[in-house]
Structures are given as structure tokens and as C-alpha cells.
Amino acid sequence: MDMNKAKMINDAVVSTVERKAEERGIERGIKEGREEEKIEIALYMLEENEPVKKIVKYTGLSVEQIEEIRGNLR
Known about the structure:
The chain is mostly helical. It has three helices and no strands.
């Protein structure tokens, strides 16, 4: 295999790996942003003295997560 062809293959592989890594990073960022938003909503609801059961329903967070958030408010 000549060097040009090997370089082209290597560049294509590197490009694919970089693109996939970027896609994973974007997906991870979106997921983390959603989690932060759920926590923020739970905080607001706790401040308004909403029942934990209601917060679970609207945020999808667990009772344990909400209790942890409540503990951080104090």
C-alpha cells in the first residue's frame, strides 16, 4: 500500500472517531442539562412546599434524589 493511500485511510478513520466522540459529547451534554433542569424544577417545587410525590411525578427524579435536594436547601 502506498503512503498516500495509507494516509487517506488513517485520516478517514481519525475523522470518523472524532465525529463520533463529538456526537457522544453532545449527547452527554444534553443529558446533563436535562438532569440539571429537573433538579432546578424540584428546587422550585420544594420552595413552594409541593408534596414530594408530586415532584417525583413531574420531574422523574426519585424520592431519594428529592430528599437529597431538600437536605441541601437547609
